[in-house]
Amino acid sequence: MIAVKVVRDRDRKVTGLFVSGHSGYAEEGSDIICAGASTLVYTLANSLERFCGIDTEYSTRIAEDKGDGHVYAEIIIPEGRVKDEAAADRAQVIMETIVLGFISLAESVNRDGNRYLEIKEEY
Fold first, then answer.
1. Which long-range contacts (CB under 8 A, 24 or more apart) does 59-66 make?
2. What is d(CA 46, CA 32) in angstroms, rounded to the nearest whole number?
3. What CATH number is associated with residue 22?
4. Structurally, how many domains does the chain consist of?
5. Which residues of 88-108 are buried (b: 16+ CB within 10 A; e: fewer)?
6. pTM of the shown model
7. 65: enclosing H helix or E strand
8. Which domain holds residue 75?
9. Residuewise pLDDT in 10s, the chain (123 residues)
10. What is the largest CA-CA distance in the chain?
11. Rounded-to-integer distance, Cα 11 and Cα 53, Å
């Protein structure tokens, strides 16, 4: 199962997204759920860099397939590294959009008792 942890601050703003695991839906290399999760992770990292100026060197760690078919990703909004309030607002829209993408993916694949993707929020 892929575990997604959404970390929020006391104002309910997303400050981090942590993704790990393998869905187990299909064999490594053919798993469309893992492909969807990977796409969301890379879209988030690239969007934060391109549209918000967040340096991924300080905010992103992604290790896909360490020989076990699992994805591991940590993407955070680094405190003090967002250039201005407009960029911080854009970062929140992007983070919430990706969280919505994970929720939608989970709703579409977790059926008939199957649990391929789990999302938890931490405050």
1. 64/38, 65/28
2. 21
3. 3.30.70.1490
4. 1
5. eebbbebbeebbebbeebbee
6. 0.92
7. none
8. 2-122
9. 999 999 999 999 999 999 999 999 998 788 999 999 999 999 999 999 999 999 888 889 988 666 667 889 999 998 877 889 999 999 999 999 999 999 999 999 999 999 999 999 999
10. 45
11. 22
